[in-house]
Write a structure and sequence with these properties.
With 347 residues, the chain is of the alpha+beta class. The protein contains 12 helices and 9 strands. The chain has a 5-stranded antiparallel β-sheet with strand order 6-5-9-8-7, sandwiched between helices.
Length: 347
Amino acid sequence: MDPHRGADLRLAETAASAGSTVERARALLEVLRRALPFDAAFLAFTDPLGERYHDLVTVDLDDGAAEFLSGPQLARDIEATGTDRERPPLGPSDLPYPADELPTWAECLIPAGIHEGLGVALFAPGRRHVGHLAVLSGSRQPPSALARRRLAQLAPVVARGIDPMASLVAAARLVRGARAGVLLRADGGCQELPGLPTDGVLGAGSPVVALARERAVAGRVCSSFLWPLGGAHAPDGHVRLTVLAAPADAPPGLTAVVLLSPATGLRGLTPRELQVLGFLVEGCSNQDIAAALFVAPRTVAAHLEHVLGKLAASTRTLAAVRAEREGLYVPAPRRGGAPLPEAFARV
């Protein structure tokens, strides 16, 4: 077998291996070293919420160098040299000025015995900037053309292996039939989930997103609920919303995945009964439900009788537990005078 072909396969296998992103990054650097020898190296992960890097992984760099590279200067120097853009690998000998004019080299790498190397931005599918890779050498000899080509060939594989969205995308695949999704950010915003389109239901200012965020903030690992389309009586049916807490190795600042999928397995529950179940999950009394839905208490009692039968529940408490466990309810508005979501408006 062509030795380059074998190295490429080993790197691809490592990129697809299990474990945390940081564990894969360390393993990738070790495999990369056999394909493209270096004296030291580092991988820095892009922060999806800002212009900086996080979770630095180093090979054969001392603690002082690793501490320096973990600071803000690295991002500034990467931007100054243009190695945060899609371009061929770049080394100190390619710069139009001495490398020691860059603090990262003058204050960190040169004192550590590093004089040459190559840096390259890492991009995942969709042109998402996921990190920066640098392979370093104690030699003063500029990298060869072959080394540059090899690093350019292998960089996309490394990018796939450290893609910080990979764990979130994997979590999204657990929801059958998911047809749209967004990522919830800790700063209150949302961003696209790679591989899935967005949807108007999940748009900015959507009450659905607000409800999903409440569940994420409450620390729930997984929750599911229904939402009516077209109004309270769901003339256009329902959709299911699933909220998954971000995995432990997800990028900082991303808190949850919200996924939209078809509403199936409704047990014959009507739109109004699904609304009533939402109030039941919140522990509301018949009088509370009647007041919120502008109906008589006896109407609520009739709905509850039907709900208990369809859920094969002997009590309203058991019905609420089953509804919440199976996501068979439209969330009720919070108590305390909060406005009713549009879907609860009287029609």
